Structure formats: structure tokens, C-alpha cells
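User: Please fill in residues for this 354-position structure.
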């Protein structure tokens, strides 16, 4: 089989890029009979006007690749990403190519409901596709209300589950290490987390240390931390990946992602693989992997008081952290890269023979 993946360039930072990279590398390694190629439909390292020009050029460039690939795996979020992939879908189907439409978007429901045009375009695009991939049961239910195409597969986001590691030990003088990884801005709830920490009493703040790893509104976050007098409680590291991210996960005691919108965050899955208890919200596919009072606490987005209570519970109880962490490790097993890649290969075979 020859498959062309249409997605962001490898240099674009974010969870979707991480997923796409893992899937391509995993399929290539595990299934030599599959020829995988990547068509970069978007870049983010240039001026916005140049991004538009590049996206249009990339679409034209795809025309020259059409004779060589039968299956095209399109990775889409909401907004501009969906508009681009809708055009790709129309073009590819016009030339008789098979299209798998992979929905990642954390704000896909909001995008659908924003206008009649969006709802119409989503319906037409998904109905044209030969199959649809979603991240969770929750997203599958939504998509079934958006279109008449019932050929929908649930493919969990993949992660590399580490076989073993030397976790940083807890000691009397070591604060409980909280970890946040993701886009720094309102959507991921980082400002709620800072507010929750500011409301803790002095002794509780002294027992915690929050590590913030991400991009975008870094300077705004640093100013807020200073205003809340939390410079001894919060450290902003900026964007991390690779060995630095692995080291941060090994060092952490609790992972927190109080998002307002999500699909199924890769960062939560990675934290679970490192046996971390999770504090997150009841949005997207998160409640399918973070079970309240089993491997973490699930709260409502924006509930700062509940967020603070969850932090205190896990900060004060090492045995609870250990128990929740072990449960996280067992729950994340279906997201192991090898299993996910095997399921994706079966999807490719199904579409190829359909």
C-alpha cells in the first residue's frame, strides 16, 4: 500500500504534529509493505500572509503527486485546518482518490455550531470521505450527528509507553512537583491553575512547585505569576520535547491540565504512562481516560475552587498519588504506539479493499 499523509509540517509545535510523526514512524517501522509519505499542508514559522500563500502552493503541488498514491490520510483540526482539508478532500475525490479524514480538533463542536456554512461544509466533507477517524467515543457520537457517513473508526492517540525509568524520589524537603504541559493561554486553563495556587495558604504553597511547559503566552503568564507573588511556586520553562520532556515527566508527582476544550490530549496520555495522577476536566475524550477518584480528579472547566481542592488532596497524600499513578499506567496501555499502529494498518487495509 502507498499512503500519503496530509498534515502540518514536522516543525509545527503541538500535539497533532506529535501524533502524526508517531503514526508515520510507527507504520514505517512495523509494516515495511506500507509506503508512507508526508505532504506538508501548513507551516507556522513565517508571516501569516506567507502561510496562506504556502498553503495554496502546497495544494497545487499535491496535483503532481496524485499518480503515485491511492490513499490519502488527512489530519484536521477546526477552523483554518478544516477549511484546508475540506478543499483537499474535494480535490482528491474529484480525481478518484480514497480519503481518510482524521479529526483531532479540540474545538470541533464549537466550530460546527458557529455557522450554518460550517455545519454544511462538515457534512459535505465527511460524507465525501471514504472513512473517518476520531479520537474517542464522545467524538464519534458527535460526528454521527454531523453527517451520514457511518464508516467511523476510533483510533486513540498513540504514545511510547516507557518500559521502566528511575523516577525522582520524594523526600521530606522536596516539594510535590506539579506539571503542566501545553499551549499557554486560556483554552488550556493555565491561568485558572495559577489562580488556584494563589488561593492556597502559605504552608500549602511551600509544599508545591509547579512546572509550566509550553509556548504562546509565556510573558503574560510570567507577569501573572509575579502579580500573584508565586515566583517561588511556579517555574515557566517554555516549550520542551524529547529528552527534556521525558526528564520532566520522570521528575513530576502530579500532572494538571484544566482545559476548557480538548480532543484527547497527548500530554495526559504521556503523563499516565509515567504513572502520574491526573487533574483535568470533563471535556472531549478526557473522561474516557481520566476516571474520577480512580486515577485522578475530573472537574468542571473554570471551577478554580475544585481545582485547588484537588491539588491539596494530591499534595497531602503520597499514598493516593501512588495508587492513582498505578491506575493511570494500566489505563493508558491501549494507547501504546504498537497497538495503535496495528489498528491503523487495519484501517488502511479496509479502505484499500473497499
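Assistant: Residues filled in for all 354 positions:
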Amino acid at each position: 500500500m502507498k499512503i500519503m499523509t496530509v498534515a502540518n509540517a514536522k516543525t509545527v509545535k503541538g500535539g497533532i504534529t506529535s501524533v502524526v510523526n508517531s503514526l508515520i514512524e510507527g507504520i514505517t517501522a512495523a509494516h515495511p509493505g506500507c509506503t508512507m509519505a508526508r505532504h506538508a499542508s501548513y507551516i507556522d514559522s513565517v508571516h501569516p500572509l506567507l502561510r496562506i500563500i504556502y498553503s495554496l502552493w502546497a495544494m497545487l503541488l499535491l496535483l503532481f503527486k496524485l499518480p503515485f498514491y491511492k490513499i490519502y490520510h488527512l489530519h484536521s483540526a477546526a477552523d483554518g485546518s478544516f477549511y484546508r482539508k475540506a478543499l483537499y478532500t474535494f480535490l482528491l475525490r474529484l480525481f478518484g482518490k480514497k480519503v481518510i479524514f482524521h479529526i483531532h480538533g479540540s474545538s470541533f463542536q464549537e466550530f460546527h455550531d458557529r455557522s450554518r456554512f460550517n455545519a454544511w461544509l462538515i457534512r459535505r466533507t465527511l460524507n465525501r470521505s471514504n472513512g473517518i477517524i476520531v479520537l474517542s467515543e464522545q467524538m464519534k457520537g458527535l460526528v454521527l450527528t454531523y453527517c451520514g457517513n457511518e464508516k467511523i473508526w476510533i483510533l486513540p492517540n498513540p504514545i511510547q509507553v516507557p518500559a521502566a525509568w528511575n523516577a525522582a524520589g520524594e523526600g521530606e524537603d522536596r516539594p510535590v512537583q506539579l506539571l503542566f504541559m501545553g499551549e499557554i493561554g486560556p483554552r488550556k486553563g493555565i491561568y485558572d491553575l495559577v489562580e488556584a495556587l494563589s488561593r492556597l495558604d502559605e504552608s500549602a504553597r511551600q509544599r508545591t512547585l509547579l512546572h509550566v511547559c509550553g509556548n504562546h503566552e509565556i510573558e503574560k503568564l510570567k507577569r501573572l505569576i509575579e502579580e500573584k507573588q508565586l515566583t517561588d511556586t511556579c517555574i515557566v520553562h517554555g516549550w520542551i520535547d524529547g529528552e527534556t520532556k521525558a526528564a520532566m515527566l520522570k521528575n513530576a508527582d502530579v500532572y494538571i491540565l484544566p482545559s476548557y476544550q480538548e480532543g484527547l490530549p497527548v500530554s495526559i496520555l504521556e503523563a499516565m504512562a509515567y504513572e502520574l495522577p491526573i487533574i483535568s476536566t470533563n471535556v472531549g475524550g478526557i473522561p474516557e481516560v481520566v476516571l474520577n477518584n480512580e486515577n485522578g480528579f475530573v472537574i468542571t472547566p473554570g471551577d478554580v475552587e475544585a481545582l485547588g481542592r484537588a491539588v491539596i488532596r494530591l499534595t497531602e497524600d503520597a499514598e493516593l498519588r501512588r495508587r492513582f499513578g498505578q491506575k493511570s499506567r494500566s489505563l493508558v496501555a491501549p494507547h501504546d504506539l504498537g497497538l495503535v499502529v496495528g489498528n491503523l494498518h487495519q484501517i488502511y487495509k479496509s479502505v484499500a479493499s473497499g
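For context: The two ends are 13 Å apart (CA to CA).
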